[in-house]
Structures are given as C-alpha cells and as structure tokens.
Amino acid sequence: MVAAPSGGGKTSLIAALLERDPRVRLSVSHTTRAPRPGEQDGVHYHFVNEERFLQLVSQDAFLEHARVFDHYYGTGRAAVEQQLAEGCDVVLDIDWQGARQVRQSFPACRSIFIVPPSLQELHRRLTRRGQDNDAVIRRRMRDARNEISHWDEFDFLVINDEFDDALADLQSIIRHGRAQRDHQREREAEILAELLETG
Hints:
Elements: E1 2-3, H1 10-20, E2 24-26, E3 30-31, E4 46-47, H2 50-58, E5 62-68, E6 71-76, H3 77-85, E7 89-91, H4 96-105, E8 112-115, H5 119-129, H6 134-148, E9 156-159, H7 163-176, H8 185-196
Parallel strand pairs: 1-8, 2-7, 3-4, 8-9
Antiparallel strand pairs: 3-6, 5-6
C-alpha cells in the first residue's frame, strides 16, 4: 500500500515504478469523481456513479473504501486477489483510511507513506499541476497536515525530495522489504516536524 498527501508525488512514483519493474501491478481503484484530463476508464480508475459504487459496497466487493474530497474511492477485492494469486506484487494507491481497512484483510502487507520535503514544496507541486483552483489547493494544503499526521501508522516512510532516490527506495521496499538507503532519522524528524507544525 502506498499513501501520500495530495501533491506528495505518489502517482508519479508509482507510474515510474510500474515502468521499471514488470512484476509490480497497480490495483485500479473505483471512484465516483469525474475523470481528469487524460485519465482513461479502466486504466487510471474505474469511474462509476455513486449508485453503482454503493451497490458494490453492499456486495462486499471492496477491500477498502472511503469518502475523500467529496467522492468515494474503493479497491476491488477480486482483482487484487487474482493478481496476488498470479505471483505479482500489487500496489494499492490508497489513503490512510483505506490502509487501515486493508490491514485487517492483509495483515502481512507492507505499507509505505510518501511525504514531500516541505510544505512550500507541496504547495508548489499542487499549483504546478494546474488541475485545481486556488480554493481547492488551500483545502488540500489544510487536509495535508491531517493526512501526514497518520504517517506513523505505516511501515515505511519515503521522503520524496529527489525523485530518483525516492523511486529507488520505493522499489527496494516493495522488492526487499527495506529501503535502499539508510535514512537519517534526524532528517525525517525535522521534515515531519515542519510538515505538521501548527500555527
């Protein structure tokens, strides 16, 4: 499972990981939100309306599901179980709420939380995407602190400062159960303190 605050770089890192390692598969989630420019149904998400989503919930079709930013998201149970049975490493692009639910079904799964190196960099990334208006960006920045506060529920922390280093760590965790580089705990503590500071 890989989680991050919006703008943390999770989507880009997962895409690069999938290109680099053919044994890794991405679980394609269901969502009730509208597709963003360039997104394709069945590739980026399974786009469904709210009625269909809630029907799938009632059929216990999801390993996890949650409402995030006014839309529902869920991880299909059957597809993940099939990929695991085929011997693949399956990456779930997920939020902290979903991660809690998945741990109940798969306690042995590895969970990874990705953080940006600073709030300033997070704001720059959200703005650079050009997908959200100023009000949405302000909301995402507010919500980021709450999301980041759950970092300690995850097995691994990856600081997405230098993209190639973060990608190497992500791949090493998935393949070997450990980061490629030994992170300095002091640096992690400083970055987390800045990301979570209030006031």
